[in-house]
Structures are given as C-alpha cells and as structure tokens.
Amino acid sequence: MKDITIAIDGFSSTGKSTIAKLLAKSLGYVYVDSGAMYRAITYFAMKQGRISTEHFDRDGLISDLPNANVSFKFNDDLGFAEVYLNNENIEKNIRTLEVSNLVSTVAAVPEVRKQLVKIQKEIGKNKAVVMDGRDIGTVVFPDAELKIFMNASAQTRAMRRYNEIKNNGEAITFDAILENVQKRDHLDSTRKDSPLVKAEDAIEVDNSNISIEDQFQNILKLVNTVLNP
Length: 229
Ligand code: CDP
Ligand code: CDP
Hints:
The protein is an alpha/beta fold. The protein contains nine helices and eight strands. A hairpin with a 4-residue loop joins strand 3 (70-75) and strand 4. It is globular and about 50 Å long. One cytidine-5'-diphosphate binds next to helix 2, helix 4 and helix 8. One cytidine-5'-diphosphate binds next to helix 1, helix 7 and helix 9.
C-alpha cells in the first residue's frame, strides 16, 4: 500500500494530537507534534532571557536561533516521539501554562517558522507521516493527500484541557485556560506569516459533541478512502 502524508490542523485543544497519535499507531506512520517544536523554541527563549510576560527581545531571540537544536526521539514505552532541545528531553517543560501563554508570540516570528518548517519538511520527505499543527496543510505539506481541519467550541476545548491538567495535578483555573485558548486562537489566526486557516482542500471536522473513539473511526474511514480510492 502506498504511503501518504496526513496533515491535521486546527484550533488549540481540539484533539489534534490525540487523533494524530492514534492514526500514526494504526497505520505504522511517524507522528510529529509540530506544536512541541514551537513550544521548545519558546522554552529556549525563556531560558535565554529573551521572553517573559513583561518583555520580548525579538532580535535577541533571532540571533540565538542557530543555538537551538530541536529534535525528536522515539520513546518505546510511550509509543511516540518526545521533543529534545540540544539533546535534553524537555517534553515536560514545554507543557506549562507559562509556555502556553508565550508560544504564540514566538511562533509569529518568521525566522522561527523558517527554521522549524525546514525540519518538518525533512522529517516528512518520505511520507508515512501524520503531523499536527496550524500550518501543516497550508505551508509544510501543501500536497498532503489527506488534510483535516479540527474545531470545537472554545468552552469544550478549555474544559477538556482543564480536565487533563487537573489530572496531572497542576493548580490552574478553568478561566485561565479558557483565556489562554482564546488568546492563542486569535494570535495564531491573525499573524502575518502562516496564519491558522483551513486549507481549501481540508476536510473540516467539528468534534464538540463526539467521543475520541468515534472521531478516530470517522477519520480512519477518510484515510481508507484515500488509500483505496
Ligand atoms: O496542543 P495545543 O493546541 O494547545 O498547542 P500546540 O499544538 O502545542 O501549539 C502551540 C502553539 O504553537 C500554537 O498555539 C501556535 O502558536 C504554535 N504553532 C504554530 O504556529 N504552528 C504549528 N504548526 C504548530 C504550532
Ligand atoms: O492537540 P490538541 O491541542 O488539538 O488537543 P489534544 O491534546 O489532542 O486534546 C486535548 C484534550 O481533549 C485531551 O485531554 C483529549 O483527551 C481531549 N479530547 C476529548 O475529550 N474528546 C475529543 N473528541 C478530542 C479530545
């Protein structure tokens, strides 16, 4: 069977990575969380003192970029790849609300995007990849055989994220998460370089009222239609 490229884009916390991981596992494809790469650069910028809630030294970050080596390593126990910054596993460091609140600012910088898109294209050059993000179907893999654009109501998304974080023991209010989700949606959709927009040929899926399993089965049907036309 021929290998294809699957691009999953959409708003924050719509379930992109959950579905992308399930698809990759069932197809034997590589899963790439492109958002983790933008989070990695944000974490790097924080460590370098280039960004905080009070300031953003954009030029400083750009000059530091050659020193930020973002990569993935497959974790056999987890069954997916984790993100590394200069050979340090930073998977846990990048999921904090602090990083979530700064990442859209960093992701709007064209130099950051250029560096990461190059790596993403390289990882996907042999196909057999499921990548999720904001510009995968529009910029990274405009020729992807299957493009999904996921959406759900902001309340639903924030509640899902809230439950996830609560289960991890992090003390965060629902309102703080809702605010973050809405702010990021706005920044990601309105930036100049590679804004979050549905690719013309993407299939839009609203999963506000559908379980992960049902959604996975629906998308698997779409994959099979592409694989066996
Ligand atoms: O998982 P969640 O939807 O909360 O976010 P993410 O996929 O981890 O992405 C974090 C942020 O990275 C997004 O809000 C975007 O600002 C940025 N991003 C991007 O600009 N382009 C991508 N392809 C992926 C993420
Ligand atoms: O990758 P993205 O930010 O789009 O979302 P995610 O991390 O895959 O999903 C965010 C949360 O929503 C996770 O806790 C999922 O288990 C949950 N979810 C859900 O409850 N129902 C869905 N149909 C999709 C995701």
